[in-house]
Amino acid sequence: MYHKLLFMSTPMGAIGSGLGGGVELTLSNIATEMLRRGHKLEIVTPQGSISNSLPIKEIPGELIQIPAQNQSRSDPIVLHKNSVLANMWDYARQVQADYDLIVNFAYDWLPLYLTPFFNCPIAHLISMGSLTDVMDQIIEQIAINFPNTIGVHSQTQAATFTFAKRCICLLNGLDLSIYQFCPKPTQNLAWVGRISPEKGLEDAVAAAEITGIPLKIFGFKQDISYWEKICQEYPNAPIEYVGFLPTVELQKELGKCRSLLVTPRWIEAFGNVAIEALACGVPLIAYRRGGLTEIVQEGKTGFLVEPDSVQGLVEAIKHLDEIDRQTCRQQAETLYSLEAMGDRTEEWFQKILRN
Ligand code: HBI
Questions:
Q1: Measuring from atom 5 of ligand 1, which residue has the nearest CA?
Q2: Which residue intervals define the domain Glycosyl transferase family in the entry (predicted)?
Q3: Does 83 sit in the ligand 1 pocket, CB within 6 Å?
Q4: CA-CA distance, 286 to 135, in Å (whole number)?
Q5: Annotation: CATH topology of 176-335
């Protein structure tokens, strides 16, 4: 049974710009797998997107959607003039008759509000936990009136919403063929992510200073003053800022590390960098917070640590030799391959189309 799918990307940035965060990777991976399975598909995305083989439809408009994670709970919805989000959904309205299912990847109010106005069914893959009252309300309304159409990445993320039991949990998936298993690591620890306060980098740096084990830092320096504050606070920490690397280069460097430290201050819906590390055979040391609590298999593929406890990180580092790196790769192959994610996603789509 083949479907005609219309994927609606995030308005945060053109595909390939990196501005769309984890959603860019998620959308591209699901699209690749759906095409491989024989489904027809088009991706609607802001102008300026680059995408090797994926069929994209670029839409003009202002990329000025406020990042939802920067809003406070009571913030109202803001839609600017010539919003690319509004333009993308006007295009979807015009072509909806050519598709069996529309899949929304944006964490925005408009696609959810428009759902009852469309004839074509719409699936929403929600990329973050509960952030604002107005988003919670509209997601709940759709979850109730359009059963099975709300997808999430983890039970912990779903649990941030009052309607958790109405959410379909999809985990996430990667193209494992671009992640090479590395059996023999160097001594280095790794930290990967946007360098921004909610990612808690300072704790990983503190652990490197205490243990004296070098820490390689990968990621986009989003908040320069935050980075400079860390350097002033830990002048002797053995850290090296590698920079933002594209996936193929990142996995090569990450794979050589003894462990990935994951130190989020906020509830990460999932943990894309964590499954990238597992795919390379790299054990995880992560705060017991958010989606990571469902990824780390305690004592087998890593250790979960008391949130915000640097001492906990230091303690876990001492036990790294107990972890078999092959087991880490195995978990990625069992749970996070494109095949496994494709099965979960296809099943979700069928469930909606059977409604
Ligand atoms: N904020 N308003 C808004 N819309 C999005 O689609 C969105 C966002 N913030 C972050 C984000 N998407 C992606 O980076 C996700 O990967 C989290």
A1: 107
A2: 190-329
A3: no
A4: 28
A5: Rossmann fold (3.40.50)
- Rounded (5°) CA angle 254-258-263: 75
Using an 8 Å Cβ cutoff, are 255 and 296 in contact?
A: no
For strands 189-192 and 40-46, give the pairing: unpaired
Ligand 1 neighbourhood includes 270 CB (under 6 angstroms)? no
Domain 4-173+337-354: which CATH number of 3.30.70.2860, 3.30.420.10, 3.40.1390.30, 3.40.50.2000: 3.40.50.2000
Instruction: Quote the ligand 1 centre to 32 CA distance (angstroms).
Output: 21
**Ligand 1: centre distance to CA 151 (Å):** 15
- Topology agreement, domain 4-173+337-354 and domain 176-335: yes
Per-residue pLDDT tens digits of the chain, which is 355 residues long: 899 999 999 999 888 776 777 888 899 999 999 999 999 999 999 998 887 789 999 999 999 889 898 899 999 999 999 999 999 999 999 999 999 999 999 999 999 999 999 999 999 999 999 999 999 999 999 999 999 999 999 999 999 999 999 999 999 999 999 999 999 999 999 999 989 999 999 999 999 999 999 999 999 898 999 999 999 999 999 999 999 998 999 999 999 999 999 999 999 999 999 999 999 999 999 999 999 999 999 999 999 999 999 999 999 999 999 999 999 999 999 999 999 999 999 999 999 999 8
Distance CA 131, CA 165 (A): 18
Ligand 1 binding pocket includes 127 (Cβ within 6 Å): yes
State in Å: Cα 272 to ligand 1 middle: 14
φ/ψ bin of 133: left (φ > 0), alpha (ψ from -120 to 50), beta (otherwise): alpha
pTM of the model: 0.93
Domain boundary assignment for the chain: 4-173+337-354, 176-335
